[in-house]
Design the sequence.
């Protein structure tokens, strides 16, 4: 049983209890997929105060004023990475948002988007081309971040896409997500397209889902690229995912055949190890439903065709648990 005092130590509880959040019931968002936990639809009527004024974060000499928009990402730890190209540091108005705002300057990413650090430049450029061609869309049309990426893909020049791809390919993905198997979890709501603890809530059974949330909500809201995430997964899911990924189950093929023995990618085939389980689950389901139809997507057809929702949960939990 996951205890609330652990959440207090993780920094999740303090900010929420101090915030004037109100959850209203006037309107219900009906998810379009069986994996609603992965698609992060914001809870209607939830009013979480956004960062405002001057802020600092631990381990940084920088100070930034909030609020900030998608063209002005805070770079708390500039020593972590080489000089960002303009498309990463500031984007190009009105629709090419700064890559570093959502994916963070060090490419670690967040549950509602993708980690890009260490992916091959060829792979990233191909995904941008797929967005531009309308071949990548979300199975949950109400999810905002994929729509934003479609706009970026449609408006970024090939030169901008290449500059961003080569920049993120030069980085190294760091350990970012702590996977915890547990039968019970805190009740949650969704804000900023990610799960957070419901104020005044108790605990509930995790069921067939993954709950990925900030280790420290305040630092995550400040877009601190040194503050990662915890993913609560069902008991036994990591081992079940390992079995599926190894190809010992007739439902699917061994992931290692294409993604490498350690699932850290091979050439243009992306890494899976250590990435967001929410993101991984979305991609498996989007491939299964045909909403992700890029150049290399047909290679995944037989891999995902027979996966049940509980299989996707297990695979995402296992992959996220691996050292990146």
Sequence:
């Amino acid at each position: 049983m996951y205890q609330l005092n652990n959440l207090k130590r993780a920094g999740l509880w303090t900010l929420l209890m101090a915030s004037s959040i109100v959850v209203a019931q006037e309107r219900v968002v009906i998810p379009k997929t069986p994996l609603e936990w992965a698609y992060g639809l914001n809870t209607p009527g939830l009013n979480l105060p956004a960062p405002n004024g001057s802020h600092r974060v631990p381990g940084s000499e920088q100070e930034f004023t909030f609020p900030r928009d998608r063209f002005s990402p805070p770079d708390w730890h500039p020593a972590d990475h080489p000089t960002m190209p303009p498309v990463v540091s500031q984007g190009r108005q009105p629709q090419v948002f700064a890559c570093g705002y959502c994916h963070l300057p060090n490419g670690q990413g967040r549950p509602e988007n993708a980690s890009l650090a260490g992916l091959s430049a060829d792979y990233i450029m191909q995904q941008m081309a797929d967005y531009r061609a309308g071949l990548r869309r979300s199975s949950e049309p109400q999810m905002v971040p994929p729509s934003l990426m479609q706009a970026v893909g449609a408006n970024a020049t090939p030169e901008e896409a290449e500059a961003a791809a080569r920049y993120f390919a030069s980085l190294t993905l760091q350990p970012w997500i702590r996977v915890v198997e547990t039968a019970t979890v805190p009740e949650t709501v969704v804000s900023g397209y990610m799960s957070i603890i419901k104020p005044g809530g108790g605990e509930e059974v995790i069921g067939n889902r993954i709950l990925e949330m900030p280790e420290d909500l305040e630092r995550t809201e400040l877009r601190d690229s040194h503050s990662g995430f915890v993913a609560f997964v069902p008991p036994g899911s990591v081992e079940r995912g390992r079995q599926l990924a190894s190809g010992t189950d007739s439902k699917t093929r061994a992931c290692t055949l294409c993604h490498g023995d350690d699932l850290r990618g091979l050439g243009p085939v992306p890494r899976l190890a250590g990435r967001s389980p929410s993101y991984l689950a979305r991609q498996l389901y989007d491939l299964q439903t045909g909403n992700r139809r890029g150049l290399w997507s047909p290679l995944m057809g037989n891999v995902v065709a027979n996966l049940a929702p509980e299989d996707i949960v297990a695979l995402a939990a296992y992959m996220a648990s691996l050292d990146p």
Summary: The radius of gyration is 19 Å. The first helix runs from residue 4 to 9. The CA atoms of residues 19 and 49 lie 7 Å apart. The chain has 14 helices and nine strands.
